[in-house]
């Protein structure tokens, strides 16, 4: 019996993908790693400094403040957008022309570019021409997202909730539509309450898409830049200066390429570690709930 040789030419089909990945990810990453261990005095003169920039970045108090603001913002985003998106998905019609119309309306904010979203809310929050700013001023609230740090932070949070909650709602809606009608029929026969249907039928079936929603929203909120930059410019003070804007200030504003490269690697590792921890925690919670006997 002769064994035919395996045709390896199929790997040639993957070659364009590998080339694209190399130029779009691997080469830039290696460039950043190279910059992070050097002191770039001039384009012609560079000095190897090892881990000096990493140590300097880790001691930076401004970085600690930006990290605390970023963690607080990302946590607030998840706490608000996840239940709000699930509630919106549950209230959306399942069939008919109303379902199509609602899906289009809900998706509208996702189609707006990020810089335009910041501009919209910049106008929306102004007391002289903006609807929200004028309404709050009319209620006697001295609202100013440019002069009050708390107002600025909550405005950025509200802007993100308006922009990205529909993504959670659409993912949750897709999970709900995948549930067979037999589950609901069995629940009606057993006389299950609406909360019991949600707890034991809808929520378990949505767990997979909600996990994706949590990871997507956490990663995106942890890298937010354009919207708060357009809306507040990171101010007032450093109230809305998150990690991405701090990195941009280092790399572009101060042209500290070495510290900026070191910080970008630390930034990447922080996102990777937090997403890994969040994913494992959600997997463990899901496993424990599956093992619990239903009442």
From TrEMBL:
List the PANTHER family hit by this protein, alphabetically.
Answer: GLUCOSE IMPORT SYSTEM PERMEASE PROTEIN GLCT (PTHR43759:SF1), TREHALOSE TRANSPORT SYSTEM PERMEASE PROTEIN SUGA (PTHR43759)
User: Which species expresses this protein natively?
Assistant: Pseudorhodoferax soli
TM segment ranges: 71-90, 102-124, 152-176, 208-226, 260-281
Q: What is its main location?
A: membrane
Query: Which locations, inside or outside the cell, does it occupy?
Result: Cell membrane
Which CDD domains has this protein been placed in?
TM_PBP2 (cd06261)
- Spell out the GO cellular component terms annotated for this protein, sorted alphabetically and separated by semicolons: plasma membrane
UniProt protein name = Carbohydrate ABC transporter membrane protein 1 (CUT1 family)
Q: How does it sit in the membrane?
A: Multi-pass membrane protein
- Pfam families, alphabetically? BPD_transp_1
Provide this UniProt record's keywords sorted from A to Z: Membrane, Transmembrane, Transmembrane helix, Transport
- Which GO terms of type biological process are on file? transmembrane transport
> Which family does the UniProt entry place this protein in?
Belongs to the binding-protein-dependent transport system permease family.
Q: Which residues form the ABC transmembrane type-1 domain?
A: 67-278
């Amino acid at each position: 019996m002769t064994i035919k040789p395996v045709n390896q030419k199929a790997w040639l089909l993957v070659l364009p993908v590998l080339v694209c990945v190399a130029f779009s990810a691997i080469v830039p990453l290696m460039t950043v790693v190279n910059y992070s261990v050097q002191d770039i005095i001039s384009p012609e003169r560079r000095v190897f400094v090892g881990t000096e920039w990493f140590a300097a970045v880790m001691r930076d108090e401004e970085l600690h403040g930006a990290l605390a603001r970023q963690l607080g913002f990302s946590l607030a985003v998840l706490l608000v957008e996840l239940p709000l998106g699930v509630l919106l998905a549950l209230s959306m019609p399942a069939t008919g022309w109303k379902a199509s119309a609602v899906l289009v309306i809900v998706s509208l904010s996702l189609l707006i570019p990020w810089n335009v979203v910041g501009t919209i809310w910049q106008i929306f929050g102004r007391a002289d021409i903006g609807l929200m700013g004028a309404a709050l001023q009319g209620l006697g609230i001295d609202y100013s997202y440019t002069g009050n740090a708390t107002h600025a932070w909550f405005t950025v949070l509200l802007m993100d909730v308006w922009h990205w909650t529909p993504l959670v709602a659409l993912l949750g809606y897709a999970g709900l539509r995948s549930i067979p009608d037999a589950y609901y029929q069995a629940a009606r026969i057993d006389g299950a309450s609406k909360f019991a249907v949600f707890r034991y039928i809808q929520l378990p079936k949505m767990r997979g898409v909600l996990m994706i929603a949590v990871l997507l929203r956490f990663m995106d909120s942890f890298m937010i830049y354009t919207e708060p930059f357009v809306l507040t410019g990171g101010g007032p003070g450093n109230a809305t200066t998150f990690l991405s804007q701090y990195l941009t200030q280092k790399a572009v504003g101060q042209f500290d390429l070495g510290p900026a490269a070191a910080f970008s690697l630390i930034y990447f590792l922080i996102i990777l570690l937090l997403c890994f921890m969040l994913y494992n925690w959600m997997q463990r919670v899901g496993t424990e709930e599956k093992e619990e006997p239903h009442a």
